[in-house]
């Protein structure tokens, strides 16, 4: 069994354990990469005596928000909508809302997309509003709103904001939001099992449950309405992995074509608003919100894109690496199951395992300078600099260093001091300067860190290129890392 196969088996065991422990009656999971779905599984009873699989239909709740954002961006791309237009241009009833300060701006479409319109976080309330009518939503607005902050100043997770975006899409497109999302985004991508009502689903729909008196109590499904744009979609592991693969491809060298341009898909995955640590307690990663997606920063793996979903009876999560496209989707059919915790654990495990020998589909993942669209010339320059620096370390000559490095390198630490420090570091760990690197890390295409083996430890070498096209090294660091014990 390869390390990759072993890791996938661990992922399956992780989700099986959750069903065995009674976290949820069932779950379904999938792993995808740039090629699409590469592994999947399911455990428990989906409600009809059958074990779920990649085609079993669960509610994906707030994972819907990425589809809402994508649908809206097609209207912007076609010139029908300005992201900085005030919401009152599309939802006149919002004009009755008293803003928190005299100088507060009316929330714009962009503020709604980035969860920065100033509204309080509203999960329990909003999850029960899906089926209300537009007129009932207007009544809520005319009755007034609370604000936790001045619009445009802070992040706060807001379903109300995405309900208003659904109305924006409906008004600008001239048809119900659910039809616009279906015809503009879902059907063109072949996401035929991704629908806004159980009745539309061509596959088996999993029953949602909540715990009660030591047992599971089934919950009714809600139907489409004014809040469908916050979390109304049903989907499958296969379909959601297809959607995530499509989004992730925008960061590859060959983005997939589709109804939403690669540029707009990349825009969705940009850090627009910092998410306070109180929103993601216990997380070790800095987190931000883009357009319908969270963006996490990881020191080893770069940007990780994700979104969770929670509805009465259901929990969902999708996440992927922007650099490699490797990702995980997972569903469970229990209220507050928080399948996101298991999905993140599974994803971290797979990212750690993804090496050239692990899976042919992931060859090269996690090694070398970080790959990003348009960065190939920079990557080639970084590799060339790595080769040049390797030669310099083995046989230091000041004139060669001058050709490889920018002038600040000698100014920051004079060459004679660098030579002595490098020699001492090499000697401390017995480094083999002619050996191939035993590991590499990169945070950007112009940055590379690698380790050379030694008899009693290893040597860490790190370079960063200056921005000029001469591609010279502006940072050169050589550090001994002695073996423990």
UniProtKB/TrEMBL annotation:
MF annotations from Gene Ontology: hydrolase activity
- EC number(s) per entry: 3.1.1.103
Query: Which SUPFAM superfamilies does its entry note?
Result: beta-lactamase/transpeptidase-like
Compartments where located: Membrane
Q: Broadest EC class?
A: hydrolase
Q: Where is the Beta-lactamase-related domain?
A: 11-343
Q: Which Pfam families does the entry mention?
A: Beta-lactamase
Q: Does the keyword Hydrolase apply?
A: yes
What coarse category fits the chief subcellular location reported for this protein? Answer: membrane
Keywords assigned:
Hydrolase, Membrane
The UniProt entry, under PANTHER family, shows:
D-ALANYL-D-ALANINE-CARBOXYPEPTIDASE/ENDOPEPTIDASE AMPH, PENICILLIN-BINDING PROTEIN 4
Name this protein carries in UniProt: Serine hydrolase domain-containing protein
| Species of origin | Curtobacterium citreum
């Amino acid at each position: 069994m390869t390390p990759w196969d072993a890791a996938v088996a661990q992922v399956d065991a992780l989700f099986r354990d959750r069903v065995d422990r009674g976290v949820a009656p069932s779950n379904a999971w999938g792993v995808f990469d740039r090629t699409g779905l590469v592994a999947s599984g399911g455990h428990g009873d989906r409600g009809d005596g059958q074990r779920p699989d990649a085609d079993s239909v669960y509610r994906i709740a707030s994972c819907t928000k990425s589809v809402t954002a994508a649908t809206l961006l097609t209207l912007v791309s076609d010139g029908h909508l300005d992201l900085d237009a005030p919401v009152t241009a599309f939802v006149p009833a919002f004009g009755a809302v008293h803003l928190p300060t005299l100088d507060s701006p009316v929330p714009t479409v962009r503020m709604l997309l980035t969860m920065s319109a100033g509204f309080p976080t509203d999960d329990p309330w909003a999850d029960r509003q899906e089926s209300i009518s537009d007129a009932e939503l207007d009544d809520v607005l005319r009755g007034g709103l609370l604000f936790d902050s001045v619009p445009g100043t802070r992040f706060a997770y807001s379903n109300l904001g995405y309900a208003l975006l659904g109305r924006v899409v409906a008004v600008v497109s001239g048809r119900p939001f659910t039809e616009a999302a279906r015809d503009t985004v879902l059907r063109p991508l072949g996401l035929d099992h991704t629908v806004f009502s159980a009745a539309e689903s061509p596959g088996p729909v999993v029953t949602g449950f909540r715990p009660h008196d030591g047992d599971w109590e089934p919950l009714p499904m809600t139907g489409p309405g004014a809040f469908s744009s916050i979390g109304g979609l049903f989907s499958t592991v296969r379909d959601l992995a297809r959607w995530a693969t499509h989004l992730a491809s925008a960061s590859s060298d060959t983005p997939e074509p589709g109804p939403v341009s690669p540029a707009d898909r990349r825009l969705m995955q940009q850090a627009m608003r910092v998410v306070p640590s109180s929103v993601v307690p216990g997380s070790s990663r800095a987190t931000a919100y883009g357009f319908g997606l969270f963006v996490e920063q990881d020191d080893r793996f770069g940007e990780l894109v994700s979104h969770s979903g929670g509805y009465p009876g259901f929990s969902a999560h999708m996440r992927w690496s922007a650099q490699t496209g490797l990702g995980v989707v997972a569903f469970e059919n229990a209220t507050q199951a928080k399948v996101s915790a298991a999905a993140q654990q599974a994803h971290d495990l797979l990212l750690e395992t993804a090496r050239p020998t692990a899976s042919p589909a992931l060859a090269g993942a996690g090694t070398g300078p970080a790959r990003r669209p348009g960065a190939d010339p920079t990557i080639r320059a970084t590799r060339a600099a790595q080769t040049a620096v390797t030669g310099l370390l083995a046989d230091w000559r000041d004139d060669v260093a001058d050709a490889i490095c920018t002038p600040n390198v000698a100014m920051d630490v004079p060459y004679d001091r660098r030579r002595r420090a490098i020699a001492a570091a090499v000697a401390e760990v017995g480094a083999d300067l002619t050996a191939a690197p035993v590991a590499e890390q990169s945070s950007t295409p112009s940055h590379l860190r690698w380790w050379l083996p030694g008899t009693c430890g290893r040597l860490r070498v790190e370079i960063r290129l200056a921005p000029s096209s001469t591609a010279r090294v502006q940072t050169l660091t050589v550090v001994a890392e002695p073996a423990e014990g």
